[in-house]
């Protein structure tokens, strides 16, 4: 299973967590194999795409047998670093930020929000969902100590860009941006943008104009 992960296309890599979660459920229920059509039904990805995705990491399903669940899971664990705990941090402990701190990816065992930052006097110094909230002024120093590279950004949109600039200066390499602001960052920093209201509007639009 010594594969060159750089060769996995990005679109395939994005689907891996989806496959992983479903396969984990299968393993927990004692199933040892799964067909691409069963997977397809469960994760809502067509089976041709699944077969192509799996071929990138050498998992060739056998006709009438399907895929070996344990093999796939051990591959995914390696690829997704499921065996390593990745600590992330959160900036902006408002309503959304607080919800994330309380949730704290409790279903996943490999990602955990370790600390949070805000500027509001009524938030700094508190602990929410077991996560300490520090003043943003302490960001650089604390991040350097803990070698965190990823930030979940849940501040008001007008504050997002200046904060992102500071995060980058502090060495952050990945930002999960929940604000509507489009962030400009250097090319070695990755931003994934999740605008919940846009996603919701788009779902409503598709339901209306492209009924299934
Ligand atoms: P709340 O009602 O708790 O303020 P909200 O989600 O409606 O929640 P927002 O105005 O979106 O509030 O702000 C989100 C959080 O970002 C708040 O906790 C706020 O204190 C914090 N915040 C605002 N400006 C900054 C900043 N420059 N740096 C860090 N955090 C900030």
Automatic annotation (TrEMBL):
<keyword id="KW-0963">Cytoplasm</keyword>
<dbReference type="InterPro" id="IPR009718">
    <property type="entry name" value="Rex_DNA-bd_C_dom"/>
</dbReference>
<dbReference type="InterPro" id="IPR022876">
    <property type="entry name" value="Tscrpt_rep_Rex"/>
</dbReference>
<keyword id="KW-0520">NAD</keyword>
<dbReference type="GO" id="GO:0045892">
    <property type="term" value="P:negative regulation of DNA-templated transcription"/>
</dbReference>
<feature type="domain" description="CoA-binding">
    <location>
        <begin position="81"/>
        <end position="182"/>
    </location>
</feature>
<dbReference type="InterPro" id="IPR036388">
    <property type="entry name" value="WH-like_DNA-bd_sf"/>
</dbReference>
<comment type="similarity">
    <text>Belongs to the transcriptional regulatory Rex family.</text>
</comment>
<keyword id="KW-0678">Repressor</keyword>
<dbReference type="GO" id="GO:0003700">
    <property type="term" value="F:DNA-binding transcription factor activity"/>
</dbReference>
<keyword id="KW-0805">Transcription regulation</keyword>
<dbReference type="GO" id="GO:0005737">
    <property type="term" value="C:cytoplasm"/>
</dbReference>
<dbReference type="Pfam" id="PF06971">
    <property type="entry name" value="Put_DNA-bind_N"/>
</dbReference>
<dbReference type="GO" id="GO:0051775">
    <property type="term" value="P:response to redox state"/>
</dbReference>
<comment type="function">
    <text>Modulates transcription in response to changes in cellular NADH/NAD(+) redox state.</text>
</comment>
<dbReference type="InterPro" id="IPR003781">
    <property type="entry name" value="CoA-bd"/>
</dbReference>
<feature type="DNA-binding region" description="H-T-H motif">
    <location>
        <begin position="18"/>
        <end position="57"/>
    </location>
</feature>
<dbReference type="InterPro" id="IPR036390">
    <property type="entry name" value="WH_DNA-bd_sf"/>
</dbReference>
<keyword id="KW-0804">Transcription</keyword>
<dbReference type="GO" id="GO:0003677">
    <property type="term" value="F:DNA binding"/>
</dbReference>
<keyword id="KW-0238">DNA-binding</keyword>
<protein>
    <recommendedName>
        <fullName>Redox-sensing transcriptional repressor Rex</fullName>
    </recommendedName>
</protein>
<feature type="binding site">
    <location>
        <begin position="92"/>
        <end position="97"/>
    </location>
    <ligand>
        <name>NAD(+)</name>
    </ligand>
</feature>
<dbReference type="Pfam" id="PF02629">
    <property type="entry name" value="CoA_binding"/>
</dbReference>
<dbReference type="InterPro" id="IPR036291">
    <property type="entry name" value="NAD(P)-bd_dom_sf"/>
</dbReference>
<comment type="subunit">
    <text>Homodimer.</text>
</comment>
<dbReference type="InterPro" id="IPR058203">
    <property type="entry name" value="Rex_bacilli-type"/>
</dbReference>
